[in-house]
Predict the 3D structure of the following.
Amino acid sequence: MANLADENKFFADVCKNFDSAAQFTNHPEGLLNQIKACNSVYRFQFPIRRGNGFEVIDAWRVEHSHHMSPTKGGIRYSEMVNEDEVMALAALMTYKCAIVNVPFGGAKGGIKINTKQYSVAELETITRRYTTELIKKNFIGPGIDVPAPDYGSGEREMSWIADTYMTMNPGQLDALGCVTGKPIALHGIRGRKEATGRGVAYAVRECVDVAEDMAKIGLKAGLGDKRVVVQGLGNVGYHSAKFLAEFGATIVGLCEYEGAIYNANGLNVDEVFAHRKNTGSILGFPGATDFRNSMEGLEQECDIIVPAALENQFTELNIRNIKAKIIAEGANGPTTPEAEVIFTEMGGIIIPDMYCNAGGVTVSYFEWLKNLSHVAFGRMENRYAANSNANLIATLENLTGKTILPEHRLMIVKGASEMELVNSGLEDTMIHSYHEIRETLKVKPGTETLRTAAFVNSIDKIAVSYMNLGVWP
Ligand code: GLU
């Protein structure tokens, strides 16, 4: 977790990674500086009524890059939030969107509170006031800047934002596109909640499926024999673990702030989740070994670690203790540049955050498209496809005199649901982007890591947008 000493390092770390990659592009220095800079940093404070008095809340919204509109990125609710962190996270959003071809600039918001210390009514007041402040400064809107959930926020907060925005913009047809990650009842999209974790699982699967790359780090191809440790049982960590297990991997370790558990024979993620809910702690799960120091959980025998909590988890101080060969960054910025150098020397592979956790914003893009088109994906064609498939089968059965099995009929006849379309769009995006990054790593001499290659692709795409905008002569 970021501490005070690190307060001004996160954005610098993102810029450091950018600079390492920029040398493999041939854009003018001024353009590179423009891509790197945070275009707008809005810091504000507002009061809320608390007890018999008032409390002043610190908040931020950073729009990192306007090379595309709207800008996009979550709002973090945490007492650790500071300006440097929001700037770094906004910058990562820019690069992330470019990597997965989501046509947005990057942004991020922060509200400096410990959500556990506020009532639901107070959280609602804070969220609505935060939204109002953004509206006053033109920092939110379906074509301007579109927030989403991040650490400490979810569907509930997004529905308050949507409602506040719609109230203040009566009659604006596309108002619901002002925020994503909304509940389905408020025109959210199916699959958004699990999207980041599902995307992490696709990313890992893509990486371990390349036999040539796995041979280099002494692993076999495929997820079947892979042991995984996941840090964080929040939305991203829980879903990453769940889908990785579904795709064949064994979850051997789970880490939370109160400690970690490990079982070489595997852990059932849902059972651990239920255990934590019932007992208030991940520790004491039947059959697993407890570690009171959560970081120890990350140092156990495994092939893959998925950090899905906060930034700065792997530094030059602890990276040498990691036994995994692959770090799949579900969180933003979990590995410092110094730690990455050491881990690469140790022969490890890092699947970088800006690609690995891009599933969330990818499905946010689908939600935004749904809101702008005012119709759910599949609504117009679902039944049409089912009927024409049924006609096709009937014709074939007539011609051949054979009858298809009922379970096969069900599978072939049905049209695609919104969830299936979302998941297929997400899977395709993650597969395509992985190979785009891997290709750059192969063909650009000097790009030694997937992160550098991902940055190169991202910088090239953003540079083209700037030139097409005519902003750059
Ligand atoms: N907060 C998420 C992220 O860091 C999602 C952003 C979005 O959906 O706009 O990628």
The CA atoms of residues 139 and 145 lie 6 Å apart.
